[in-house]
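Quick one: co-fold with 2,6-di-O-phosphono-beta-D-fructofuranose.
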Amino acid sequence: MRLLSLALLAPLAQGFLPAPAAPRPFTQRAPLHMSAPPKTRKAPVFDEVCETTGVTLTRFMIEVAFLNPEMQELPALFSGISTACKAISDMVKRSQLTGLVGYADGGGSINVQGEEQKTLDIMTNDVLKRALRFTGKLGVLASEEEDTPVGVPLNPKDVVFDETSKYTAVFDPLDGSSNVDAGIPTGTIFGIFEHDDECEIAEGGSMTEDELLCLQNTLKPGTDLIASGYCLYSSSCFFVVTLGAGVYGFTLDENIGEFVLTHPNIKVPETSKIYSFNEANMPQWDVPMRETVEKWRLGTGASGNSFTSRYIGSMVGDVHRTLLYGGVFGYPSDKKNVNGKLRLLYEGAPMSFLMEQAGGLSTDGRGRVMEIVPKEVHQRVPIIMGSKKDVQEVIDAYAKSK
Ligand code: FDP
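Sure, here it is.
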């Protein structure tokens, strides 16, 4: 396999990637042919084993691959991701003892988005890259901590599974990392797309038009995801995943070192009494958003429920609670952040896929987050997701305000 180095890619990518998104209207939604599932994306079949608590993630994935031959390469990739999650969970848990705290290089290490990187941001990105590289199933990978998508070179000496079809993985290695040193929950978010096998990017020289197109092919809407999930590092380490047919939650049993199915077929309650936003931004929100939350506070919204507020400020923790207890989590557009704060490719789309698969909704106020085609890797998107009826109330408020 030919190699693509990050150093080579960065300047070239700057040349072809569009300039940062303009203020609203900013969304390009997938045309119908892109939102329809491609032929390899038929919803996987599960049998009763996959609905039975106590089944390990390894066994679950073997069953899935057995029942869905087109997914037979996923278990190897999931083995890499879950191993990385175990390593990261341990790293985060022990960080106060091992000194993996604070900012990288004592401060001043800035990622492409201008955010200062924590030591753990860099280390967890590395752990994931190594774990995925050795599965032999990955063509391209995009991460919050990388400037642009990077090729995943295989060392010919590495023992790998046979390399027939490959995937593109997008991930946020340590979401919520600004809180990590205070022991607040953090998480790893991932999304997996099919990668065009014809798409190889050569090392050296300038990129051909075809190669540039290949690279742009990594910018896909959430409707093209074949799997997404997260690991939550908290009281337990959870691994929650969708393959496009429901949402399955596993808990790490540290005694045996395996993720064990504890939450089969998670369904988010249809309505709730919880909202989860950074309320300090409320005066800056769009009017429909502000008015809906005001009503929830007063108990005069569609459900008549008086809402309470729960905001960790760590997306994986807030989404996990929302999936289990119901509620509405979001980071809406505001005057300062017209496109919200959360990143579309590796936060918004994977989490929206999970939320929709659990029976909830995810919107930017005007339409499905899943249908937005990213124009650049680190594009931001406003997000309001959670219990179906409550999120619908927000969508209706935006529709009325047109
Ligand atoms: P963090 O910056 O700590 O990584 O997307 C990043 C994120 O956390 C989300 O996990 C979280 O929901 C959000 O930012 C919190 O933003 P505010 O601090 O502005 O509330």
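If it helps, The CA atoms of residues 288 and 401 lie 7 Å apart.
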